[in-house]
Design brief:
3-stranded mixed beta sheet; 6-stranded mixed beta sheet; 2 domains; 11 helices; single chain; about 15% strand; alpha/beta; 9 strands; 2-enoyl-CoA Hydratase, Chain A, domain 1
């Protein structure tokens, strides 16, 4: 059984289901390999517009699997270079999710802990079930609270003070508090979570693919813009570039004809 199940519930929507439910979808080597392979497929499919990331069973992802042999033994026997290579391969998942040119929606159906929390943070949009729990538990198991981009994403999403508290204490953040903090955009009953995520995905599909890509690039670039003028310069260049796709002309024509636009 693959550690990540890939399906296409609707044209343009690729669903990646983390699939180790007996371990609350905890991370092991097979998980990392399969998720990288799934992202390879997404990157190679120009028809893909949205990635839905969710978990099988009762959990989203419980972080790394402490019962897996991959993480046991004396680290000195593996060597620093091997440890760093493994860490980079793991953290590369967050980078790839963040940098995909399509929208990534995390449907958090249960516990998102450690690396699972980081994967949810790397998504563009997060919706959660009422049973969802977020926890940066790393400090409780002898490693730093910073992993897979958590110290970059979390302060930007909920503010430095609240993020620092969560990362230093490793306390749990429930769904209601996550909504109040702006970490998730909606909290729904568990049986409504798939529909809530699909509803967002369908809204994205109705937009221009190139616009989605450029909007993600601008959000990322302007997060570190030195001034309003710098941010607007980035936006201006992107708007001019978008003129050459033909999407604006199609949007105008569709509006005049009273139909949805058919973006390329």
């Amino acid at each position: 059984m693959p550690a990540v199940v890939v399906d296409q519930p609707k044209p343009g929507i690729r669903r990646l289901t983390l699939n180790r439910p007996e371990r609350l979808n905890a991370i092991n080597d097979a998980f990392v390999t399969d998720l990288h392979a799934a992202l390879d497929d997404v990157e190679g499919d120009p028809s893909c517009r949205v990635v839905l990331l969710t978990g099988a069973g009762k959990g989203f992802c419980a972080g790394f699997d402490m019962k897996a042999g991959d993480y046991n033994g004396d680290p000195a026997e593996r060597g620093t270079a091997a440890l760093m290579a493994g860490q980079r391969r793991l953290s590369g998942l967050a980078i790839r999710l963040h940098e995909l040119p399509v929208a990534v929606i995390a449907a958090v159906n249960g516990a998102a802990a450690g690396g699972g929390f980081a994967l949810a943070l790397a998504a563009d949009i997060r919706v959660a079930s009422e049973s969802a729990v977020f926890v940066a538990a790393n400090v409780k198991i002898g490693v730093s609270g910073g992993e897979m981009g958590m110290t970059w994403h979390l302060p930007r999403l909920i503010g430095e003070s609240r993020a620092t508290e969560l990362l230093l204490t490793g306390r749990k953040l429930g769904a209601a508090e996550a909504l109040a903090a702006g970490l998730v955009t909606a909290v729904v009953p568990a049986d409504q979570l798939p529909d809530a995520a699909f509803g967002l995905a369908e809204q994205v599909i109705a937009t221009s693919p190139f616009s989605t890509w450029m909007t993600k690039e601008l959000i990322d670039a302007n997060a570190s813009a030195g001034s309003l003028r710098h941010a607007i310069q980035n936006e201006n260049r992107t708007q001019v570039l978008c003129n050459y796709t033909g999407d604006i002309a199609e949007a105008v024509t569709a509006f005049r004809e009273g139909r949805p636009p058919a973006f390329r």
